[in-house]
Specification:
This protein has two helices and eight strands. The protein is of the alpha+beta class. It is elongated.
């Protein structure tokens, strides 16, 4: 199975609509992500070369897409009135009744680590 075949299978599994504009030399797959950003994956038919291209992304979006969002560090703080989760990476604060930290930050969307 070529890299293009595998990509198209993975996109199908996730219900992502994609288009093909294959040429005699290249297999090209293009799609849009949930934020409307356009992506294109190109592979030589002989498998010798492939590349991923994205359009209209900010530098932050490029880092997130390729390296991940990173994590948001969290700490529980007790006050006289409430317990709070302090999201130390992004600065968000939320009241809580849960002794366990959430899995993801409600402000920045990063995975939480205590």
């Amino acid at each position: 199975m070529s890299a293009t075949d595998e990509l198209r299978r993975l996109l199908d599994e996730r219900g992502v609509e994609w288009g093909a504009s294959d040429t005699y030399r290249l297999l090209v797959t293009s799609w849009k992500d949930a934020n409307g950003h356009s992506w294109a994956f190109m592979e030589h038919r002989d498998g010798s070369f492939s590349k991923l291209t994205a359009y209209h992304l900010t530098p932050e979006q490029v880092v997130e897409a390729t390296l991940g969002r990173g994590t948001c560090r969290v700490a529980r703080r007790e006050t006289d009135e409430h317990a709070h989760w302090d999201y130390l990476t992004c600065g968000h604060i939320s009241a809580t009744h849960s002794p366990a930290p959430p899995n993801f930050c409600p402000n920045c969307g990063r995975k939480v680590r205590a």
